Amino acid sequence: MAREDPELTVYYDGACPRCMRDRARYRAWAGRAGDAVAWVDITGREEALRRAGIDPGQALTELHVVDAAGAVHRELDAYILLLSRTKRLRPLAWLISLPGIRPALSWCYRKMVRRRLRLSGRLPE
C-alpha cells in the first residue's frame, strides 16, 4: 500500500512507451522502497507542473523528481536520487554520478530524448 505522503514524486512522460517500461521496472525492483514514490504522468498537466515549480517544456525533455522537502531535482540528479533509494539500483546511481561518466551520460540522455520527441512529433519549440 502506498504511503499518504510520498518521499518522492516522480513526473514522467506517460505517452512514452520506454518511460512506462522504466517506471514498471523501477517499481518491480524497488520493492517496499517503491511505496515512498508517487508517480505523476505529465501529459496534459501543464498547470499542475507549474504549481510544482516545473516548466512543462522541461518536464517533457527531462525527468523531474520532487523530494519530501519540495526541492525539484532534474535530469541526472533526478535519476540519481530515485535510483539511490533502492538497494538494487544504488550502485547504478553511484556510477552515473561519477565526474567522468555523468557529462557523457547527460549528453546521451538529452540526445535520445530529443530524438524520441522529434520522431513522435512532440518536440517542444
Characteristics:
single chain, 125 residues, alpha+beta, Glutaredoxin, 4 strands
What does this molecule look like?
With 125 residues, the protein is α+β, with helices and mostly antiparallel strands. It has one domain (8-120): Glutaredoxin, CATH 3.40.30. The protein has six helices and four strands. It has helices at residues 17-30, 46-51, 56-61, 75-84, 90-96, 102-120, and strands at 8-12, 37-41, 64-67, 72-74. The chain has a four-stranded mixed β-sheet with strand order 2-1-3-4. A hairpin with a 4-residue loop joins β3 and β4 (72-74). α4 runs antiparallel to α5. It is globular, with a radius of gyration of 14 Å.
Order of helix and strand elements from N to C terminus: EHEHHEEHHH
Q: What is the tally of helical segments?
A: 6
Structural class: alpha+beta
Q: Any idea of the CATH topology?
A: Glutaredoxin
The count of strands amounts to 4
Shape: globular
Would you identify the regions where 5 or more consecutive residues have pLDDT less than 50? none
CATH architecture heading: 3-Layer(aba) Sandwich
Largest beta sheet, briefly? Answer: 4 strands, mixed
Distance between the termini: 40 Å
- Rg estimate, integer Å: 14 Å
Q: Report the average pLDDT across residues.
A: 90
Major sheet: order of its strands? 2-1-3-4
Q: Which band does the percent of strand residues land in?
A: 5-15%
- Helix fraction? 40-55%
Number of domains: 1
Per-chain topology:
Elements: E1 8-12, H1 17-30, E2 37-41, H2 46-51, H3 56-61, E3 64-67, E4 72-74, H4 75-84, H5 90-96, H6 102-120
Parallel strand pairs: 1-2
Antiparallel strand pairs: 1-3, 3-4
Helix pairs in contact: 4-5
